[in-house]
Amino acid sequence: MIDVQRLRVLRAVAEHGSFNRAAAALRLTPSAVSQHVAALERGLGSQVVTRSTRGVSLTPAGRIMVGAAESVAAEIEHARREVTELGTGRVQLTVATFTSGGRLLLPGALAELTAAHPGTVLHVREYEPEDSLPLVRQGAVDLALAYHFDGPLPGRTGGGGSPAPEWTALMDDPLHVVLPETHRLAGHEALDLAELAGEPWVLGCLKTEAYLRRYAERAGFDPEVRGTTTDYFFARSLVAARMGVSLIPSIALTPQVPGLCTGGLTGTVHRSRRLWCGRCRGRRRDTPDRADGGHRPGAFADRRRTGQLTGYRG
Fold first, then answer.
1. Neighbours of 152 (CB within 10 A)
2. Over the range 72-100, which residues count as b (16 or more CB within 10 Å of their CB) and which as e?
């Protein structure tokens, strides 16, 4: 029989990449973590981790067991929440979101949900997609709002034996070049990145910086980044102070900052990021739609199409 605690320990080792860091997260000793992993390996008759001076990595068997650990953790979490709901008679809904998407998409949708289902207890957690998507698989959150610029959405498929989230595309979120209103290129409807090769940049998201560097390299220049923040409003304020130019998604263009001019992107760059809503099916078997209060993730997209997302520009 596989011990659930040993699966929990293996999951922590996989997440943190070492016995010491996993031990700190679990409030165990490194020796205890090592013993749990060794006992799991003996029970399976197969090695689940490879140990080296650089840390710990999973074997193919280990990846399968971590997937199983995520599934088990998700089922236990959902069972715990259903037991809590039996006692309180109130449905719990936890939503994970990134800041700019949550600010635009959540308030109206959640107000509508609570009006239709006043007994629902809402919880909102702020996470970036790379952190929220594993929480969906683990059952720690019911829904996650996520985004990506290009390429596959991180964590869109399940790992090992873990359940793959169901994803609903919500909207495309075009990127805009933001300039001081006195800039030589202000007033242009759209700009090619190559036209901004000599400009200093201030950015409101680390992923935006990665996007900029990827496409700037294709355009033949290395961007000079003078400011990095985790807040698009702050980045726009720095642009207004003439510290540089920026790339800002449409949904982060409000509230307005005086002294700015915006334009679209042209050329061969991927010009928008895509917003998604993810959830895992099959959790609440007696009432399959109850996890989102009877509101399917596509309701966010419906609100976008019908113009009910206040503040959207682009």
1. 8
2. bbbeebbeebbeebeeeeebbbbbbbbbb
Among the residues of the chain, which ranges form H helices? 4-16, 19-26, 30-44, 60-88, 99-116, 129-138, 206-219, 232-240, 298-305
Encoding tokens for residue 134?
Answer: 């594993």
List alpha helices for 153-297, DSSP H: 206-219, 232-240
* Cα–Cα distance for residue pair 222/215, rounded to 1 Å: 10
Which residues in the chain land under pLDDT 50?
160, 284-298, 301-314
Q: How does pLDDT run across 260-312, given as a tens digit for each residue?
A: 999 999 887 788 898 988 887 655 433 334 334 444 444 554 444 433 333 33
pTM, to two decimals: 0.67
Tokens representing 274? 């895509």
Closest Cα partner for 70 from 153, 1, 128, 12?
A: 12
